[in-house]
Automatic annotation (TrEMBL):
InterPro entries according to UniProt: Glutathione-S-Trfase_C-like (IPR010987), Glutathione-S-Trfase_C_sf (IPR036282), Glutathione_S-Trfase (IPR040079), Glutathione_S-Trfase_N (IPR004045), GST_C (IPR004046), Thioredoxin-like_sf (IPR036249)
CDD domains: GST_C_YfcG_like (cd10291), GST_N_Ure2p_like (cd03048)
Segments passing through the bilayer: none
Taxonomic source organism: Tardiphaga robiniae
Stretches assigned to the GST C-terminal domain: 90-212
The protein's name: Thiol:disulfide oxidoreductase
Length: 236
């Protein structure tokens, strides 16, 4: 059994998609980031960066004691290695997928996240910041669109590379992007959206978070919890 510490964010969706695709048994442990659950001692013990998602595998492949993993990219790689699914054994194909996972972790996710923040959540609308992140998100969409011009999925067969990027493209409207400008990306997005496991993963989001799909910042307390963090939140 895997314990999945989860909230309904793009990074959280990555892992529920994998688990549903692989048919692994797991238990969702909600971490309501708007209420500060990410600062609880039991969560920080496995996720010292106080960010979701994280997991504890009580039956690791090695047969050792339980293994905990945080950071969604590392979690996807761990689960792929555990199951032998969605990451090729062929070295060239394997690292083709891995490099695109890192691309998402280092580029698409952070840039789209800052895009969301400055466009939708920042109380002061800073034109330079909005333009900077909207434009960089647009560039990254272009990179992925070009990659998908001659292939169905990012790294050949459906893989963790697709699972990593898909949840960050779903909210394209909130990122001020016109998906019709990226026909190959649009085709890929629609293809993955129709996968039964992906549909189940997003249903889980609705079950865990009744406010899923609504603006995540509804109170000043939520704003402070999510956007007012300094080193003071890290307990010594």
């Amino acid at each position: 059994m895997i314990d999945l510490y989860y909230w309904s964010t793009p990074n959280g969706h990555k892992i529920t998609i994998f688990l549903e695709e692989a048919g692994l048994p797991y238990k969702v442990i909600p971490v309501n980031i708007g209420k500060g659950d990410q600062f609880r001692d039991e969560f920080l013990a496995i996720a010292p960066n106080n960010r979701i998602p994280a997991l504890v595998d009580h039956a690791p492949k090695s047969g050792s004691k339980p293994i905990s993993v945080f950071e969604s990219g590392a979690m996807l790689m761990y689960l792929a290695e555990k199951t032998g699914k969605f990451l090729s054994d062929d070295l060239a194909v394997r690292y083709d997928a891995i490099q695109w996972v890192f691309w998402q972790m280092g580029g698409l996710g952070p840039m789209a996240g800052q895009n969301h923040h400055f466009r939708n959540y920042a109380q002061e609308k800073i034109t330079y910041a909005i333009d900077r992140y909207v434009n960089e998100t647009n560039r990254l969409y272009g990179v992925l669109n070009k990659r998908l011009a001659d292939r169905k999925f990012i790294a050949g067969d459906y893989s963790i590379a697709d699972m990593a990027s898909y949840p960050w493209i779903v909210p394209y409207k909130n990122q001020s992007q016109d998906i019709n400008d990226f026909p190959h990306l649009k085709r890929w997005l629609e293809t993955i959206a129709e996968r039964p496991a992906v549909k189940r993963a997003y249903e889980i989001a609705k079950e865990v978070n009744p406010n899923f799909g609504q603006p995540p910042i509804r109170t000043e307390e939520e704003r402070k919890l999510l956007f007012g963090q300094t080193s003071a939140v890290v307990k010594s």
